[in-house]
Structure formats: structure tokens, C-alpha cells
Write a structure and sequence with these properties.
The chain is an all-alpha fold. It is about 80% helix and about 0% strand.
Length: about 60
Amino acid sequence: MTTALSLLMITGLKCQSEQTLQKESKKLLIMQQFTCSLLSIDSEKIRFKWKVNQSSPLSHKEVW
């Protein structure tokens, strides 16, 4: 949602040059890739945490 909005805002500005637009879209792509890698790291940690706590008396809800 935010990406789409910012892209619309960027393309909506008439004074922007092609070079700036290319830089912005590259930046957005990098941000998306970074977010994806962060999410995968987090899921790994969560999975690990869950595996560790599986043998303990804690319920799954308490692990989260």
C-alpha cells in the first residue's frame, strides 16, 4: 500500500527527472528485499524459539 502510494506521488511530480525516478524505484526495491530478508530471519528465530520451548510446559501462545 505505502509503496504504491509513494510511487504514485513520485510519478505525479512533474519536475522529477527520469534519473531521480530510477533512483527512487531502486531504493524501493532494495527496501522491499531488505524487509523480506528481515522477515525470514524473524521467522527462523520464531521457529527456533518454538522448537526450544516445545519440550517445556509452556503453551504455544506463551511462546509468542
